[in-house]
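A quick aside before the break. I want you to see a complete sequence-to-structure record at least once, exactly as it would be stored in a machine-readable document. Don't worry about memorizing anything.
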Amino acid sequence: MRGKKYEIQKLHQAEFIVEKVLMLFAAVSVLTTAIIVFILFEETIVFFSEVSLWEFFTGTQWTPTLQPRSFGIIPLVVGTLMIALGSSIISLPLGLGSAIYLSEYAHKKVRKVVKPILEILAGIPSIVYGFFALTFITPILQTILPQTQVFNALSASIAVGIMTLPMVASMSEDAMMAVPDSIRQGAYALGSTRFEVAVKVTIPAAMSSIGAAFVLAISRAIGETMIVAIAAGQSPVLTLNPLNSIQTMTGFMVNISMGDIQQGTIEFKTLFAVGTVLFFMTLIMNLIARAIIKKNREVY
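That is the input. The structure line, written in C-alpha cells, reads:
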C-alpha cells in the first residue's frame, strides 16, 4: 500500500514538473512578443516626437533619406495594398478551386499525389519566388504589355499569389474534408450534383475556416518581404498602375536595414514607424480571421 502511494506521489510530481516546463515555454513566447512590441513602440514614439502624425499618415511623398525630407507613408501603404489585392485575385479563387477539386472530385489516390505537390510550393523560399518573378514573369508581361517596367507591382503580385495559393488550398481543403460525409450524402439523395453539393453545402458548412484561410493569405501577402523587394522595385511613388515600379512597407524596411543609414538618426527610426503600421495592419487582419471563425463556426 505504501509503495502504491509512493508511485502516485511520483506521478503527481512528474505531472507538476511537466506543467511548469510547458508554462515556461508559453512564457518565453509571450515574453519575446512583449519585448518586440516594446522596442517597436519605444522607437516609434521617439520618431513621432520629431515627425507629426498628420504628415506621416496624410503625406503623399516618401523621401526620408533625401533632401528635402518627406515622411508621408501613403505611397508605401498603397503599394502594399496593391500587392495584397493583386495576389488575392490569384490565390483566393485558384486556392478555393483546388480545394473543391481535392475534396469533392479527386479520387483518394489522386489527392494523395496532388496535395503534397501543391504544398511543395509553400516550401519554396520567397527569395526564389522573387527571382522567378523578375526573370520569368516580368519578361512575359513585357512581351504582352511593352510598357511594363522591369520592376513592377504586377509581376510581384503574381509571384506572391502563387506563394500564398498553397495556404488557401490546403486550409480550405482540410476544412471541407472535415464536413461530415453524411451531409453530402443527404444532398446527393435530394438529387444535387457534385458542384451543387460543393457550393451550396460543403463550402457554407466550412465557411469559418475558409474565410480565415482567405484573411490569413491576405495578411501573409501584406507582410511578404523578399518577393516585393526584388520584383516590385524601390520607387515610393503614389500610383495605381500595376505596371509601374512601386515600393511596399516591407521593401522599404529591407532597404533601411542594409546598414547604409546610421543608427539613431531620424531616417533609421522610420524603420520602426513603418514596422508599427505594418504590425497593426497584420494584427487587424488576424483579428478579422478570428472573428470570422468565431461567427461562422459549425460544430458537428
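Two observations worth writing down. Strands lie at 62-63, 70-71. The CA atoms of residues 164 and 217 lie 6 Å apart. We'll return to this after the break.
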